[in-house]
Design brief:
- With 339 residues, the protein is α/β, with parallel strands linked by helices.
- The protein has 2 domains: 172 residues, Peroxisomal Thiolase, Chain A, domain 1, CATH 3.40.47; 153 residues, Stage V sporulation protein AD (Peroxisomal Thiolase, Chain A, domain 1, 3-Layer(aba) Sandwich), CATH 3.40.47.
- The protein is built from 10 helices and 15 strands.
- The strands form 3 sheets. A 7-stranded mixed β-sheet has the order 1-2-10-15-14-11-12, sandwiched between helices. It has a 6-stranded mixed β-sheet with strand order 4-3-9-7-5-6, sandwiched between helices.
- Helix 6 links the parallel strand 11 and strand 12.
- Helix 1 crosses helix 2 and helix 5 packs parallel to helix 6.
- The longest helix has 20 residues.
- It starts with a strand and ends with a strand.
- The mean pLDDT is 94.
Length: 339
């Protein structure tokens, strides 16, 4: 019998994991945005001294993991598992970072939902007694994602207003079986929802139904209300997707407008930085959470947050075959108090 299960999709932890520390590294464009003061490191160029953007992305992840571990005042040998993923084919940014880090590694792919996927699985491993210390990490890079999913940068194509700017950055969290707040208290695992969108430049619309579905299910499973949270924040729906998700949630009887935001809106000044709809990518929710939100929780400016990373499950192959873009989202409750 699943004793820790609430409703159909949610887990409530008996021994909620503590988030000991986090780290966030971003690129130059992200470092010029509204959250620049909350990131641990801003690199000065998109290659960071590497021969390719893909190598740069892997380096971002390696350094974010090491910074988070150092901040937790522990050593790498104390880490039981590294849970990480990214957007690249065969998650090579994560696999190659794990090659260098030499920690027991579970590679994950949830597209841009990977940050909360890793936090979810890491929390389950710790609450289940299978680990004491876990690192959850993810990354993305504007240049690697653009040439994989859309057009080579050399093409110089015009981006439609529905398009989003993939965040260059990496975030990492150290979870522990002991420690103080904030804690991960609940996890709601999402379903794959496909609204039939086929435009790879309209990610917000493709992911919004999955986000709204998991948020509504979270409320139903837990009995929580929107007002129980100081902040409900999706990963990278940006301005268009956020509006769609908010409307879909309202249709189910929940008004989240007073506490709802999106990482893709928060990370850039869309008008000044010409990011159109806003930010996206695995790194979007990763750096906003591990940078801005975690610091707000530690300072008690926020006390209870629902983080929902959102992912578009497309590939170049599926796009070329005319497939639609399914979406996925996972929700994690992070609180300074144990409910």
């Amino acid at each position: 019998m699943a004793q820790k299960k609430l409703g159909s999709q949610t887990v409530s932890f008996q021994n909620p994991p503590s988030i000991l520390s986090t780290a966030s590294i971003v690129g130059p464009k992200e470092g010029e945005g509204p959250l620049k003061d909350y990131f641990d490191l801003i690199i000065q160029d998109d290659s960071w001294g590497e021969d390719s953007w893909e190598k740069c992305e892997s380096k971002l992840q390696i350094e974010a993991v090491r910074m988070a571990i150092s901040s937790a005042k522990i050593v790498e040998s104390q880490i039981d598992y590294l849970l990480a993923g990214d957007l690249l084919n065969q998650i090579i940014a994560s696999s190659f970072s794990a090659r260098q880090l030499q920690m027991p590694f579970l590679g994950l792919y949830g597209a841009c939902s990977t940050m909360t996927e890793s936090l979810s699985i890491g929390s389950m491993l710790i609450d289940g007694g299978y680990a004491d210390k876990i690192v959850c990490a993810t990354s993305s890079h504007f240049s690697t994602a653009e040439r994989q999913y859309r057009f080579p940068l050399e093409h110089g194509n015009q981006r439609p207003l529905t398009s989003q700017w993939t965040v260059t950055g990496a975030g990492a969290s150290v979870l522990s079986s002991s420690g103080g707040p904030p804690y991960i208290t609940h996890v709601t695992t999402g379903k794959v929802i496909d609204p039939g969108i086929k435009d790879a430049n309209n990610m917000g619309a493709a992911m919004a139904p999955a986000a709204s579905d998991v948020i509504v299910q979270h409320f139903k499973d837990t009995g929580f209300k929107p007002t129980d949270y100081d902040l409900i924040i999706t990963g990278d729906l940006a301005s268009l997707g956020k509006e769609i998700a908010e409307d879909l949630i309202a249709q189910e009887g929940y008004n989240v407008s007073s506490v709802y935001s999106d990482c893709g809106i928060e990370i850039f000044d869309n008008e000044k930085q010409d990011t159109h709809a806003g930010g996206s990518g695995c790194g979007c929710s990763a750096v906003v959470f591990n940078g801005y939100i975690f610091k707000q929780l530690k300072q008690k400016k926020l006390n209870k947050v629902l983080l929902i990373s959102t992912g578009a499950l497309l590939s170049p192959t599926s796009t070329q075959q005319g497939e639609s873009i399914p979406g996925i989202a996972h929700a994690v409750t992070i609180s300074n108090k144990l409910d």
